[in-house]
Specification:
With 283 residues, the protein is of the alpha+beta class. The protein has 8 helices and 18 strands. It has one domain: Ribonuclease Z/Hydroxyacylglutathione hydrolase-like (Metallo-beta-lactamase, Chain A). It has a 7-stranded mixed β-sheet with strand order 1-2-5-6-7-10-11. A hairpin with a 5-residue loop joins strand 8 and strand 9. The protein is globular. It comes from Novipirellula aureliae. GO terms for molecular function: hydrolase activity; metal ion binding.
């Protein structure tokens, strides 16, 4: 898909299995299993980690990085993680080498969004996967992740982000606005304090990477959100506003964890509920 000067492609940062109660929070299993049937006896459902690759002839931008390849066999078994480095294989499918990525943008820094930003070397050192890229993240998200407070430390493995700081590759932004021509960041909060959505826009169309503020098409329902939400009331407040804007502008939305509907537009039903249409498997 082309938006202005940007060529956009959707790749996977790796599929994995997650407990349905974690993905759908307070929603009862008798309800969520109708839209995301469990795939095993552990009540897990399969999700993806969709990432955007954007190229304008000068910049190669990656939004989110999936979970990466640093996990032990036991860790992989817990969530049925894919082998090797899915994000590196994903960009390779587009003919892109890690050294050619110029910018990495994070919606937030949880393991399944930032884990692919670092990798093991052959001598067991952890280094940036994209050594020539500037890594952009909201200041609040960076502060919370690097602060390693006991109550949220497990959500922010330091091995995923510490090497980026050591290499001097991190740029934080504080306000909504244009990061590159036609590419805009907008703070949502909710899922985490610094959770950010990204828009590619021109005069005729737009694409929204909505992140975990609405991780799947099923989560357009007002009360549906993950159990990981640090600020659930903020999510319930801001999500309808983001979706209403997407309806008005006929924006293409990337549902980053939806294995069945990676991309779609959003509409309104007869009772003004949000609906999904123009579903697509890629951009």
């Amino acid at each position: 898909m082309r938006i202005g000067n940007w060529q956009l492609d959707l790749i996977s940062g790796g599929r994995f299995r997650i407990d349905g109660g974690v993905l759908f929070g307070i929603v009862p299993r008798t309800v969520w299993q109708n839209v995301a049937p469990p795939v095993d006896s552990l009540h897990r459902t399969m999700v993806d980690t969709h990432c955007i690759v954007a190229r304008d002839g000068q910049n190669v931008v990656l939004i989110d990085t999936g979970y990466g390849g640093k996990y032990s066999p036991l860790d992989r078994k817990v969530n049925d993680l894919e082998p090797r480095e899915p994000i590196v294989e994903g960009i390779a499918s587009l003919g892109i080498k890690p050294e050619e990525v110029t910018h990495v943008l994070f919606s937030h820094l949880h393991f399944d969004h930032a884990g692919g930003a670092t990798r093991w070397t052959t001598d067991r050192q952890i280094v940036p996967t994209f050594p020539n890229a500037r890594h952009w993240v909201h200041q609040w998200e960076w502060e919370d992740a690097m602060g390693q407070a006991s109550e949220i430390r497990a959500a922010y493995p330091i091995q995923n982000i510490g090497p980026l700081a050591e290499a001097g590759l991190v740029d934080v932004f504080q306000h909504d606005g244009e990061l590159l021509p036609g590419l805009t960041a907008r703070l949502s909060g909710g899922h985490t304090r610094g959770h950010t959505c990204f828009y590619f826009e021109d005069a005729e169309s737009s694409v929204l990477f909505i992140g975990d503020i609405c991780p799947s098409a099923a989560h357009v329902r007002p009360q549906w959100h993950t159990a990981y939400e640090l600020y659930p009331l903020q999510t319930r407040s801001v999500k309808p506003k983001i979706l209403a804007d997407a309806v008005e502008r006929r924006t293409w939305v990337v549902w980053n964890h939806d294995i069945e509907i990676p991309v779609s537009r959003v509409g309104r039903g007869p009772k003004q509920e949000f609906t999904i249409y123009d579903t697509a498997t890629g951009l």
